[in-house]
Amino acid sequence: MLPSAEAPETLYFGGGTPSILSVSNWIRIFNAFEKRGWSDAAEFTIECNPATVTESKARVWREHGVNRVSVGVQAFDDATLRRLGRVHSVSDVIKTIKILRNAGFDNLNLDLMFAIPGQSRAAWRRSLCEAIAIQPEHISCYEITFEEDTELFDMLESGGYKPDEDVACDMYEDFLEYTANHGYELYEVSNTAKHNGTDKAEFPFFACRHNINYWRGGSYHGLGPSAAGYANGVRTRNLPNTDLYCAIIETGRRAFEYEERLSPPARAGETAAFGLRMAAGWPLDEFRKKTGYDLLQTWPEEIRMLVSNGLGILESDRFRLTPRGLRTADWVATQFLCPAEENIGQR
Length: 347
Hints:
Layout: E1 10-13, H1 23-35, E2 43-48, H2 55-63, E3 68-74, H3 78-83, H4 90-102, E4 108-114, H5 121-134, E5 138-143, H6 151-157, H7 165-180, E6 184-188, E7 191-194, H8 209-215, E8 228-231, E9 234-238, H9 242-249, E10 256-261, H10 264-275, E11 282-283, H11 284-291, H12 295-298, H13 300-308, E12 312-314, E13 318-321, H14 323-326, H15 329-334, E14 345-346
Parallel strand pairs: 1-2, 2-3, 3-4, 4-5
Antiparallel strand pairs: 5-7, 6-7, 8-9, 9-10, 10-14, 11-13, 12-13
Helix pairs in contact: 5-7
């Protein structure tokens, strides 16, 4: 566990469905946090499934410092939700938003998913319109990924569904257009947020601080089975088996599945890659302070190539991707990544 002196700036309960926990379980968690001095995080997010939120849970969350909730909506279409295997309905989403607002939450994110098998572009646009009508402070949008051992994966493998990249690109363009037209700013490839007032900072006021820390190369600790972390130059991932994880934790040890120490060049490359997913790109001085490397001198050919192909913009104080470059951010990342020199090894 983290020592009390390292009280986190942000907390994020994600993965799985943490909102399924009972009120009594949440109170135990909050009490443990308070004992360690973790209850004053500037941003405290909980991910939730709309079918698992109650008035009592929302009230307890808010009373114990949770100030941001990310709602896994995915789609505003019941047929699409059933195809995804989701247990909630559109009416559950509306009810959940009302519960959260009544509990005092003024920072909500809605997660949406596009390019779902059977999802038409018209249905996707309706989902965007419904999401915007709710007026959340933040909207995230992700192209569907096909996980093994799911019906959708089996459909893909059997040839029952063939992804259409052109349609997926059109849907992403719809996301950019609809959110921009309603006061949301794209600050990362998949994330948009509102400003608070008219002042324009580097990031929108309601941007997720926790995720910005990831993208800007900050340290973070992963607690719980399968959670990942990066601190003191070492990347870690916890054991996925809950029983084994708990057994090791009870001995006073960290339950790592593996540890990996990145070399300084590899870490700098990874930091560059993730930071360029953000619309603001990398301020050159900040990158140098963060990594010890000069972005322009370390990757001169890569940056020259991106600029010449209309994918990057070099300004006096920063390097960032163009809107077209952001659409290819995964490929751009490969231009900066370097292999780690030292792998501490599997456990």
